[in-house]
Amino acid sequence: MATLTNEQRVERGRQAQEILEHPVLKEALDAISRNAVREWANTSAEASNVREAAWNRVRAVEAIRSEFRRIITDAAFAADAIKKAQ
Q: Which domain holds residue 47?
């Protein structure tokens, strides 16, 4: 991604916050995680492929949330930089 201005970083963070808090996205990510944990818990230890796939889905959901939080945190730093420059 090209270098963004602080203003662009702030806007990007605002968008990330809006998306992360969107009820439909929250519902979908929560359902994916919940279903994966349920699948993991209800399979035998011998079904390692199924259990591993379920665990990977849980980790993928967390990675998505984490990336949004990283963008939001970056926006906060950019907003501070803008404030200090004024």
A: 25-85
Is residue 65, in this structure, part of any structural domain at all? yes
Q: 9-60 pLDDT, tens per residue?
A: 999 999 999 999 999 999 999 999 999 999 999 999 899 999 999 999 999 9
CA dist 6 and 74 (Å) reads: 9
Domain count, the chain: 1
Identify whether 33 is part of a domain. yes
> Whole-angstrom Cα distance, residue 80 to residue 78?
5
